[in-house]
């Protein structure tokens, strides 16, 4: 059922359709009939121009872990605004944030800022290619590392090919780039080992989301990949744009106990402002300043990289996350939501699995007993998923059609409301599954 909109709200949506391709800022999460404009956010809720509230499990696609308008972040940004917004040169807030990142993340000895997570993974891969003097990278099927050409290979929704053959995930990517990427199955250490052993001399690096989309690494998988990359001298890159400062203060590398050589961080680290970073051990960051055999260093610069507004917001966010009990609360609420959703599936007799870890959850509608690999998700019933998420939206919950994010400000009352809406939405799925009976 399309969302109702008043005249002013509809006019805004119409203008978006006129001025933006597809009516959104990107390949948007909502169809035109369900699209709406967010006018403001406060705490765990967002509001449209009509004043209607949605309980927010999208959280701006992840960065708003403290909720919207957190007073400490707002105050930090206001204070910095009076001092200046960007200088291109070094600034005190960027230096302080870099120090905080190095203190937090096990692999981080040095930091280079970017403005987006896509840029962070892009430059992590460029660093690794310069370090190794090789061109090929290995990534995992279904993993997402941003929208640049190397990253968008065998991404979610891309037709599968036999391992290790990649498939371009976007129009406009040179077909020749398929020769520079190898694909392995996440959570399958046996096949991953075979691919790396066969191609290690060609590889510049292995890049992985340690928690891929919403797939939790099986016991020993990340440790096995770390051992393989150590054996063959390959840089291991963790894409922690999603997991950094979310699963633990030291990210997924702290949470899962595996330390990479390089990592990308974003989302949370900018406190809701455009800031991300490549971080890593000095040895692997050296190509930024140490010329290669051709006398070249890794080129990397950006107008707004490390700008003090975003750095101030990031510092304030990290200060809140360091407070005792923050991560215990995030994990407890995430577990509660996953249990609520699992119980709702069972109560309505709908087949499916709830996956995730920490403050992230996702529902997969299929007949499997468990979901561990990307290919385990390919029989996900997208019709049921659409019905479920349409019902969430109609009943006041905003969430992407894939994973949901938990914030520190989702209250016990919010969780009670969430359980009630989950029940209503699953009832719609069950009704559709029985032909409306």
Automatic annotation (TrEMBL):
SUPFAM superfamilies: PLP-dependent transferases (SSF53383). GO terms for biological process: porphyrin-containing compound biosynthetic process. Keywords: Isomerase, Porphyrin biosynthesis, Pyridoxal phosphate. The keyword Metal-binding does not apply. Pfam families: Aminotran_3 (PF00202). GO terms for molecular function: glutamate-1-semialdehyde 2,1-aminomutase activity; pyridoxal phosphate binding; transaminase activity. It comes from the Bacteria. PANTHER family: GLUTAMATE-1-SEMIALDEHYDE 2,1-AMINOMUTASE, GLUTAMATE-1-SEMIALDEHYDE 2,1-AMINOMUTASE 1, CHLOROPLASTIC-RELATED. Belongs to the class-III pyridoxal-phosphate-dependent aminotransferase family. HemL subfamily. This is Glutamate-1-semialdehyde 2,1-aminomutase. It comes from Entotheonella factor.
């Amino acid at each position: 059922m399309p969302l109702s909109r008043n005249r002013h709200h509809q006019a805004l949506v119409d203008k978006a359709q006129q001025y933006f391709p597809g009516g959104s800022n990107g390949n948007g999460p909502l169809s035109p009939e369900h699209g709406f404009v967010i006018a403001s956010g406060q705490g765990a809720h967002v509001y449209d121009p009509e004043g209607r509230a949605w309980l927010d499990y999208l959280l701006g696609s992840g960065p708003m872990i403290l909720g919207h308008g957190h007073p400490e972040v707002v105050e930090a940004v206001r204070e910095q605004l009076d001092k200046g917004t960007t200088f291109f040169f070094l600034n005190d807030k960027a230096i302080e944030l870099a120090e905080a990142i190095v203190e937090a993340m096990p692999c981080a000895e040095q930091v280079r800022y970017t403005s987006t997570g896509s840029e962070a993974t892009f430059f992590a891969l460029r660093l690794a290619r310069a370090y190794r003097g090789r061109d090929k990278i290995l990534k995992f099927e279904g993993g997402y590392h941003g929208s640049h050409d190397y990253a968008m290979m065998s991404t979610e929704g891309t037709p599968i090919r036999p391992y290790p053959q990649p498939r371009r995930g976007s129009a406009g990517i040179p077909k020749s780039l398929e020769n520079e990427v190898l694909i392995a199955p996440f959570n399958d250490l046996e096949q991953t080992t075979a691919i790396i052993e066969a191609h290690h001399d060609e590889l510049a690096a292995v890049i992985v989301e340690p928690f891929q989309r919403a797939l939790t690494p099986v016991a020993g998988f990340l440790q096995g990949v770390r051992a393989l990359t150590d054996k063959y001298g390959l840089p291991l890159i963790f894409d922690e744009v999603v997991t950094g400062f979310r699963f633990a203060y030291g990210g997924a590398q702290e949470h899962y106990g595996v330390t990479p050589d390089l990592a990308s961080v974003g989302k949370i680290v900018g406190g809701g402002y455009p800031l991300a970073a490549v971080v890593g051990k000095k040895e692997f960051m050296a190509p930024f300043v140490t010329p290669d055999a051709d006398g070249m260093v890794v080129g990397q610069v950006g107008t707004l990289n490390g700008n003090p507004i975003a750095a101030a917001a990031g510092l304030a966010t990290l200060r809140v996350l360091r407070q005792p009990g923050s991560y215990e609360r995030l994990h407890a609420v995430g577990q509660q939501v996953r249990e609520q959703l699992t119980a709702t599936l069972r109560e309505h007799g709908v087949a499916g699995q709830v996956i995730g870890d920490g403050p992230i959850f996702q529902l997969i509608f299929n007949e499997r007993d468990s979901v561990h690999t990307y290919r385990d998700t390919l029989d996900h019933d997208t019709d049921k998923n659409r019905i479920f998420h349409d019902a969430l939206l109609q009943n006041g919950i905003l969430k992407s059609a894939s994973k949901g994010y938990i914030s520190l400000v989702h209250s016990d009352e919010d969780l009670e409301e969430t359980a009630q809406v989950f029940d209503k939405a699953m009832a719609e799925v069950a009704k559709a599954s029985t032909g409306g009976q």
